[in-house]
Amino acid sequence: MVESKSQVDNDDSSTAPVGRLPTQGDSTQLESLGFHSELQRTFSLPSIVGLCLCLMSTWEACAAVLVQGLASGGAPCLFYNFQLSIISFSGSLAIGASLGEIASIYPTAGGQYHWVTALAPARFRKPAGWVTGWISIGGLIALTSSPAFLGGLMTQGLITLNSDSYIGTRWQGMLLYWTFVFYAAAMNVWGHRALPTANLISGVLHGLFFLVTLIVLAAMSKKNTAHFVFAEAQNETGWSSSGVAWFVGMISSVYPLLGYDAACHLAEELPHASRNVPIAIIGSISINGILGLAFTLVLLFSSGPLENLLQSPTGFPFIQLYLDATKSHVGTTILTIFIIMMALAGAVAGLTSTSRTLWAFARDDATPFSNFLSTMKRNEQVPTRAIWTITALQILLGFIYLGSSTAFNAILSMAIIGMYLSYVLPILAMLLGGRSRLAKADYGPFKLSYTFGTFLNFCNASFGTEYELFKCRDCGMPIVSAGVVTGIPLAAVEYC
């Protein structure tokens, strides 16, 4: 990997100062980091927040991980762990604050790999940045495939729900998956001028669909007892230890909160990026965290017997939950279409974010065919070649699903490992010397105090390392219905 153009070779391993002035524009700041502006800053803060909300799709993902959470410690595990996943010192808000501080210093499309390259000691910069870049891109490719895959299979599930004679096949699921992938590519290449507005509208719909679904479930479903929701633990994971089962449940609570790093990769298309990127990260986590917690609480009070949910012919237990609550195929279809629409928006948002990451990585000569991938024609305003490259890789994943759904699910589950690891590595670099080498003038508008920032980085890195080690193990027994993994969040597909 050629060292990031934002870095200066120093014998003392110090980080090159940003040299930021309060009156510097975004282009000047980007040039101080070693790049020149090629992308137009057409996104606003609200549109970036909308993009992150749709890519995370937290409350929608909570519906998908409900059964896995119930089996891994019961309703109390899912409820309390979701709270911890948001507000603890190792939760998403804490990680978002750590990443937001770094993004405020280095607001470039490269995101995590650029930060590691900037903060690591000089002798480790190239390999550390190169490894982080490929981990990030690999995780993002799998991550952005997940909404399209989920949308395709959910469409099949709705057809099954409304047609007793329909028997879904894998090749049909692949074609539906490709439909979502091509739509995302078309929006990013030919509809890119509408993306800021589209993401803003999608973010608003994300909230409106939440309200409608919440009201329907709260008003129409039979309610579980408070004891079931807050105190009745259960362990269906296959592990004898309740503590291990509880930790498996905690992993389920992490999935719906991934994807907020998308704001970082749009930094070169956002005005006042040093200020707005951290706001978008913290804002999207806060909004989706509140929606997700409220929706989880309603789901836990509304869920029926675990065995009944697993027997759904649609392959999606939450569709069965909707049907049990509404007693209406039409009502269930409408509520499910809400999630399918958000899956479509998430596929578009994910491709936008991933293509910018690949483009930036190629700009630093870290990929094969880097000149081809990083070159933008004069009449283009987006990295079209990177977009089509990511799309081609997503299409190839469809062939893997055609051959083996288990193999496809296993590949998509790498998104969880890859994304979380890409969050931990720059925080670890900041903790292990990066903060001590930064001068006061190097920081952006979003700055943590030295003591609190170090403490937060330590908590993030410690929990993240433990999480990655645990996640790479056989973390329980598979929960499978109709050949479809039931723990499918919008952000990723978990095959536990």
TrEMBL record:
<keyword id="KW-0813">Transport</keyword>
<dbReference type="Pfam" id="PF13520">
    <property type="entry name" value="AA_permease_2"/>
</dbReference>
<feature type="transmembrane region" description="Helical">
    <location>
        <begin position="386"/>
        <end position="404"/>
    </location>
</feature>
<feature type="transmembrane region" description="Helical">
    <location>
        <begin position="279"/>
        <end position="301"/>
    </location>
</feature>
<feature type="transmembrane region" description="Helical">
    <location>
        <begin position="198"/>
        <end position="219"/>
    </location>
</feature>
<keyword id="KW-0472">Membrane</keyword>
<feature type="transmembrane region" description="Helical">
    <location>
        <begin position="330"/>
        <end position="351"/>
    </location>
</feature>
<feature type="transmembrane region" description="Helical">
    <location>
        <begin position="174"/>
        <end position="191"/>
    </location>
</feature>
<dbReference type="GO" id="GO:0016020">
    <property type="term" value="C:membrane"/>
</dbReference>
<dbReference type="InterPro" id="IPR002293">
    <property type="entry name" value="AA/rel_permease1"/>
</dbReference>
<dbReference type="GO" id="GO:0022857">
    <property type="term" value="F:transmembrane transporter activity"/>
</dbReference>
<keyword id="KW-1133">Transmembrane helix</keyword>
<feature type="transmembrane region" description="Helical">
    <location>
        <begin position="239"/>
        <end position="258"/>
    </location>
</feature>
<feature type="region of interest" description="Disordered">
    <location>
        <begin position="1"/>
        <end position="26"/>
    </location>
</feature>
<feature type="transmembrane region" description="Helical">
    <location>
        <begin position="131"/>
        <end position="154"/>
    </location>
</feature>
<keyword id="KW-0812">Transmembrane</keyword>
<feature type="transmembrane region" description="Helical">
    <location>
        <begin position="410"/>
        <end position="432"/>
    </location>
</feature>
<protein>
    <submittedName>
        <fullName>Amino acid permease</fullName>
    </submittedName>
</protein>
